Amino acid sequence: MNLRYLILLVTILSPLVSAESIRLSNRQLLTTDLKEARLISELSGYAIVAGRHCLDCDENLAIYIQRVGRADMGINPEKIGIEADRYTYPGRYLDYMTKKLVEKTRMFYGLCHEGQPSLLWLTEYREGGRWVKSEYLILIGEDGLKHRYTENQQPSLFYIGNSNCIELEGFLMEMEP
User: Fold this and answer.
1) Residue 6, phi then psi, degrees to nearest 5
2) pLDDT value at 72 more than 60
3) What is the pTM of this model?
4) Pairing mode, if any, of strands 91-94 and 171-174?
5) For strand 116-127 and strand 130-141, is the pairing parallel, antiparallel, or unpaired?
6) Which segments of 13-163 are extended strands (E)?
7) What whole-number distance in Å separates Cα of residue 172 and Cα of residue 157?
8) Do 52 and 34 meet the contact criterion of CB atoms below 8 Å apart?
9) Beta 101-113 vs 91-94: how paired, if at all?
10) Nearest CA to 171 among 108, 64, 59, 93?
11) Are the CB atoms for 29 and 47 separated by under 8 Å?
């Protein structure tokens, strides 16, 4: 192989080796800094992505939300990087020292709150000797993301019983140190 072509090939492929790309429904590629990256869903111009920044570390799988461009406007999706907000992946979490269950989190996406595109986390965590319930809701609208947090209750529980609100299955994991 000609050395010039080899250098060109290495230059073209180098970014692909260090980053994982995800193909969106409009056939665009969303480049990430994530390992084990996978597309969970696309909601109203946002990609919902699962992944982690390292494989041989204590970092758990997490959820990332990224605004994506529209192909008809010639806008490419932005890159999901380390600076992106990181959200809890659903599952049952054990204390890494005692191996006791300390958190249970469920996550839903779709039309999960009053018919609006949204992401919803229903969490129970140990505080002292009791379980505390909380809800974290992200509403997706034309003007961006709106975050709501409610402690000691889960008011959106009422909305998750429809076919347009999908639960993401969780895993058994340990809390990060």
Assistant:
1) -65, -45
2) no
3) 0.81
4) parallel
5) antiparallel
6) 20-23, 29-32, 35-43, 46-52, 62-67, 87-88, 91-94, 101-113, 116-127, 130-141, 144-151
7) 22
8) yes
9) antiparallel
10) 93
11) no
